[in-house]
Amino acid sequence: MEAFDSATSAAVGVFLVGLLLWGVGGWSIVVDRDLYPPAAKLALLFAALAIQLTAQRRPALAFGLMIVLLAGDFVYGPSLPLWIALTDVIFLAVSTGSARLSVVVGWFAFLVTVGGALLALALLGVRAALYAGLIGVALTWSPLGYGRAVRASRRMVDAERDAGRAELAARDAERSAAIGEERRRLARDLHDAVAGHVSAVAILAEVAQRDPGNIGVLQTIRSSSLAAMEEMRTTIELLTGPDDSAVTTRLASLDGLIEAAEAAGGSVTLRRPDDLSMPLAIEAVVTRILGETITNATKHAPGAPLDIELRREGAGLVVEASNPLGSEVATGHGNGLRNMMFRAESMDGTATAGARDGRWHVRVRIPLEAR
Predict the structure, then answer these.
(1) CB-based contacts of 182: which residues, under 8 Å, 6+ apart?
(2) For the Signal transduction histidine kinase subgroup 3 dimerisation and phosphoacceptor domain, which residue ranges apply (predicted)?
(3) Residue 73's pLDDT is what?
């Protein structure tokens, strides 16, 4: 039930994003090709919403309907809201559908990416072909990899459950609780590792649409797409490994998100003492928290400077970040903020976030000798 509630929330979120793109003039992927009347746009949004809701229980049917909808839209579009809805349908088709459907979706992602790049090459040139290929990676391969990671997690959970049936009831209950926690941890990791990069790609794609000749933005879109794929690969390797020794989340992992924020017109200043050292587990937690902080600042206050400071206070590590409030003030009830607080608490620390004196502040304190 929780999974369906989450999928419904995602479908409604895509619908609202579509309304937002409509309102700001970003409906069509191709600049100056907004040919739909308002009634047709509204009908397309409701059709995409219905298909996303159908994908929760009938993923194969929903995927087929979405392909038909996109094919019909191609003549007058392509429409960006429909392609964003496609990412959710791909994720549900791969994560909840059959293995055969997963293969079909994989071939579809390949054909869309390569075909779109070749079509752009023939009509618009090399730069447009590269841009189309990167968008294809972001809109099809990213949700495809995310869905496969979730399938791998479910297979691992099923294998653990089958192996534990012969053991005592108490041990079986303990293992089930551990598996549940592992699934929540993986969900947080996938959200924090991949969603930030995918959000950066979406924001930068909007910037590139306004300024098609900006090579720097295009290069940052490419690096953000590759970073998202690398994060997914690392997470999948962790799923199939024997332990957590493969974790390599370091502060250097933030470079891609910082570049994306700067390409969107903002700036990120990260200050830390040269002699500041911390255990790998704490550095991983701090990196994930700062990744969410940078993503939120880029999304809600694009173009505003973000100031981040890491310092030692007594036996603890203090992280403070602030940026001027943008036009979209976060309410503090999103999954990202909850994940930040949970990660800090997992290291016996605390995390707070909120608006004060015209700025958005994030403060984290973690003992350097946390368990």
Answers:
(1) 157
(2) 182-242
(3) 87
DSSP state string for 196-220:
HHHHHHHHHHHHHHH-TT-HHHHHH
**Mean pLDDT score, 95-121:** 88
- Using alpha carbons, list the distances in angstroms from residue 284 to 4, 6, 252, 273, 281: 30, 26, 10, 18, 5
Instruction: Supply the pTM of this predicted model.
Output: 0.44
Count of domains for the chain: 2
Helices (H), 29-168: 38-55, 59-73, 80-96, 99-123, 126-136, 142-163
Report the percentage of the chain scoring pLDDT > 70.
71
Contact call for residues 366 and 290 (beta carbons, < 8 A): no
Q: Which band of pLDDT confidence, cut at 50, 70 and 90, is reported for residue 218?
A: low
Q: Are residues 250 and 268 in the same domain?
A: no
Please indicate, yes or no, whether residues 220 and 345 belong to a single structural domain of this protein.
Answer: no
Query: 246 with 296, same domain?
Result: no
Find the length of the chain.
371
CB atoms within 10 A of CB 241: 11
Task: Name the band, by pLDDT with cuts 50, 70 and 90, for residue 245.
Answer: very low
Amino acid letter at 29? I
Contact 351, 338 (CB under 8 A): no
Decide if 151 contacts 95 (C-beta within 8 A).
yes
What is the spatial distance between Cα 258 and Cα 56, in angstroms, rounded to a whole number?
Answer: 35
Buried b (16+ CB within 10 A) or exposed e, 198-221: bbbbbbbbbbbbeeeeeeebbebb
Alpha helices in 164-195 (DSSP H): 169-190
How does pLDDT run across 153-167, given as a tens digit for each residue?
A: 878 877 777 776 656
Q: How far apart are CA 110 and CA 240, in angstroms?
A: 25
Close Cβ partners of 142 (under 8 Å, ≥ 6 residues apart):
87, 194, 198, 201, 225, 228, 229, 232
Q: Which of 216, 239, 263 is the last residue of a domain?
A: 263
- Sheet of 267-271: strand order equals 267-271, 305-313, 316-324, 359-367, 350-356
pLDDT of residue 327: 64
User: Checking DSSP bridges between strand 316-324 and strand 305-313, what pairing results, if any?
Assistant: antiparallel
**Could you tell me which residues come within 8 angstroms of residue 180 by beta carbon, excluding any fewer than 6 positions away?**
none
**Residue 288 lies in domain:** 264-371
- Report CA-CA distances (Å) from 200 to 235, 289, 306: 19, 16, 15
